[in-house]
Amino acid sequence: MGKRVALVLAGCGVFDGSEIHEASAALVHLSRGGAEVKIFAPNIEQRDVVNHLKGSPAEERRNVLVESARLARGDIQDLAELKASEFDAVIFPGGFGVAKNLCSWAVDGKNCTVNEHVRSTLQAFHSAKKPIGLCCISPVLAAKVFPGCEVTVGQDKNVDGRFPDAETASAIAELGCKHVCKNVNESHVDKANKIVTTCAFMCKAPLHEIFDGIGTMVQEVLKLA
After folding, report:
1. Bridge pairing between strands 56-57 and 50-51
2. Among candidate residues 97, 84, 86, 110, the one with its CA nearest the CA of residue 171
3. InterPro entries attached here (predicted)?
């Protein structure tokens, strides 16, 4: 019987929601791994709405759950309804929505607050010793909720201009966590906390390399589940 995995989204679109390619990659790899997936998102208003064509703010309001339903093809539930006892693992794709809607990292950095349902979900899986998979910017959620954990967001220096957000690694270290440098096609496993992370679009890399890196994360999560 396949593993039961919860996938948590933060909207739809890289600049104000979940990164679509990351969410899709995670779903493809989970499908290939024989997992049974249920998708969730918090029923809250987005911090902002971005016109993805212009890259500028739009004067409108959108709901994270409603927007995430686009990616879930309508088959989605309110994150408040997620019960860790019903799943073997949880995975969070990245995108600015994680840093804007699931927490306030985009505004407050390491001093951010984490959405109550996101925090309780992470804590429930961690307490049950069930694996947590995170990619791109979403490892900051683990760094904020689990001081002392190990994560990767890629490199801690902007190597060859490929890691423009390398300072995130320093902020993670300032939270008392260990940042482990990894390439885009790799993931890091914190065995003690059962947290698996990969950098995805935190690295400027070809899409297939990002896809492969997310694949290693999903594989490790399923092994731990």
Report:
1. antiparallel
2. 110
3. Class_I_gatase-like
Catalytic residue status for 136: yes
Q: Tens digit of pLDDT for each residue in 82-128?
A: 999 999 999 999 999 999 999 999 999 999 999 999 999 999 999 99
Which residues span the domain enclosing 97?
4-224
How far CA 1 is from CA of 35, 36, 88, 146, in Å, comes to 8, 9, 12, 31
First-to-final CA distance of the chain: 12
| Cα 168 from chain centroid (whole Å) | 14
- CATH number at 56 reads 3.40.50.880
Report how many domains make up the chain.
1
Question: Six-digit token pair at 136?
Answer: 């791109």
Say which of 136, 149, 177, 199 is annotated catalytic: 136
